[in-house]
Amino acid sequence: MAYSFPEEVLEYVFAFLSSDKDRNAVSLVCKSWYEIERWCRRRIFIGNCYAVSPQIVIRRFPEVRAVKIKGKPHFADFNLVPEGWGAYLYPWISAMARSYPWLEEIKLKRMVVTDESLELISKSFKNFKVLVLSSCEGFTTDGLASIAANCRNLRELDLRESEVEDLSGHWLSHFPDNFTSLVSLNMSCLGSEVSFSALERLVSRCPNLKTLRLNRAVPVEKLPSLLRRAPQLVEFGTGAYSAEIQTDIFSNLVEAFSGCKHLKSLSGFWDVVPAYLPAMYNVCSRITSLNLSYATVQSPDLVELISQCPNLKCLWVLDYIEDAGLKALSSYCKDLQELRVFPSDPYGAEPNVSLTEQGLVTVSAGCPKLQSVLYFCRQMSNAALIAIARNRPNFIRFRLCIIEPQAPDYLTLEPLDTGFGAIVENCKELRRLSLSGLLTDRVFEYIGTHAKKLEMLSIAFAGDSDLGLHHVLSGCESLRKLEIRDCPFGHKALLANAAKLETMRSLWMSSCSVSYGACKLLGQKMPRLNVEVIDERGSPNSRPETCPVEKLYVYRTVAGPRVDKPDFVWTMDEDAALRLS
Amino acid sequence: MAHENELNLKATELRLGLPGTDESEDMVSIAKNNKRASPESVEDSGSKANSAAKSGDHETSSASKAQIVGWPPVRSYRKNNLQSKKAESESGMYVKVSMDGAPYLRKVDLKVYNGYPELLMALENMFKLSIGEYSEREGYEGSEYAPAYEDKDGDLMLVGDVPWDMFMSSCKRLRIMRGSEAKGLGCAV
């Protein structure tokens, strides 16, 4: 059957397959389809940079044009992964520079990127177009200067949420005068001021610029000049949105915003002076995405703005919005799909704002399309969670952070098991869940029973025993990523469900009760897993085998134990794994 | 055994709480030991934290919360953004006050005052002088002294023209001028 079509025809057909899942399925049909597919795969997604090596990727897929690689585990965002753990980009770039001269796109998340890597990128790929560095670190603005200077066809430079050593704003001036291809620039994470005239000229000469996210250093009075030069902008991020109230600044802003008929997304808004918010009102009717998570503005001003945005689909905001503001949101924004409410005072002992579980209940009742939520609050009840679950069975992502660890239902003082149980039972399409509050093994029983589509689960300060973990590992069929901190889970569930770990991308456990001996056993039993013990107290061999390890990171891999480990990481049964691979 | 290790971990644990905040240490150990906190102990630890917050002075009340590494799960750049705001709001807004002819300057905390009348009264008390009534047209016409301030741009402005909040955010220092010199400042801005 396979040889009834010429290769070129099959290749043409396969080109229509964009999802990795489909391409993987196609490559399993027969040897010739495997061959044809691997030569025409252009986009690669590597969810864990240590699951595979650059050499293996390049050997199988010789004609790749776009790579997306993820490095450190998610809990690295909260300083739980020690500095120097790994996720270095350089080996990937060095290998790809030799084998993928036509590489166009590199998208990275939580990787350590050096200036050396950036320079190598800028010099190795003649047709390089897209660089997205999400939550990356290890580079300086000098690296950015290389990219600006050498990537003649660059379309996207997006530094979202990366930690950049900001030596100066001079890097932006390295874009050559004849460089006109920019479509997207996100420099919001940078501290230094860039040369404003260089920025103005860059914006003026790039007619396809659709996304411009400025950094805090750009003052509000400079915005009109940029907006006037880029009326085609779709996504715009301001700098610090404050200045002394001067009528001409305000009217210039109004005029400049009015000229932008295609604006859909707004962000930035550091240091907001509320009086300047109305300058945006006449674009608000088209706005679908609003990131106000840096705007330390009170609820009434927030409501004023939100009430102008009936087409809002995505809102990120601080808890200054309060329950009253969320009520207004639920009445004005019926198209809302995603809501994130961040805490303005995460370490304060007392609540500083009137934001409670009620706000979330109201929004879940009033916004029929709401499917993704991240909500920080100080109190929760089972009744509220049950109401939320019933109101909104279409949740895909539900991340709740009750700020006090192990906080019970504040009305009944019971654990929040039944509340979260209602969430997983009603929301049958739930893919991501983060738990908080007082929780027993019971909640994990509910999760294991009902959360069949759950792919990522985050647990903190919860559970009573290994039974809890066992429910999750044995019941959650779609589970890919499990991250656990400060839970009384030992080794029993882990060892009993060892095979499950090969079906997942990764498991993270820190401040739990998994003994060193158990880690060794797991490593021996499962040669295709890297069982990494991360312990800054020195070698686990210097302590009894029953001693729990500080942190454990387990992930499936075809690359064997990694060779770039720092001195506080040990891969269990490394020798045996090396012998088998 | 586990307890022994916990103690070790605590010694090396990265904490942002102030030394001597024992209540918060108890809370962390409750979090680790009590698998299911009974209602009484939850109430106890809750009220302990509250009393720590109330009995401590202003500076320690926000730090008395147990500061566990990576909890709540807020990313550093968000925390930094908020912390700088907090520092501003807690540290007071002291500006220098000079008076023409006085041998040395004084300092006042603008945050302490709710508006112009309070500030002017405080200045009158501090320097033993009278400032008189403000009018938009005449400034402090007829007074022996007139209050002026230097704003962010370095310009010398008459106190009272702009809303109080705007004044607070733009005032860099105060200068009490003699009424005779202050003529002409009445039509500033």
TrEMBL record, chain A:
It comes from the Eukaryota. Pathway: Protein modification; protein ubiquitination. Residues 5-46 form the F-box domain. GO terms for cellular component: nucleus. SUPFAM superfamilies: F-box domain, RNI-like. GO terms for molecular function: auxin binding. Its main location: nucleus. GO terms for biological process: auxin-activated signaling pathway; pollen maturation. Coiled coil: none annotated. Keywords: Auxin signaling pathway, Developmental protein, Nucleus, Ubl conjugation pathway. It is found in: Nucleus. This is Protein TRANSPORT INHIBITOR RESPONSE 1.
TrEMBL record, chain B:
This is Auxin-responsive protein. One of its GO terms (cellular component) is nucleus. It comes from Forsythia ovata. Residues 92-184 form the PB1 domain. The keyword Transcription regulation applies. GO terms for biological process: auxin-activated signaling pathway. It comes from the Eukaryota. Aux/IAA proteins are short-lived transcriptional factors that function as repressors of early auxin response genes at low auxin concentrations. Homodimers and heterodimers. The keyword Glycoprotein does not apply. Belongs to the Aux/IAA family. Its main location: nucleus. It is found in: Nucleus.
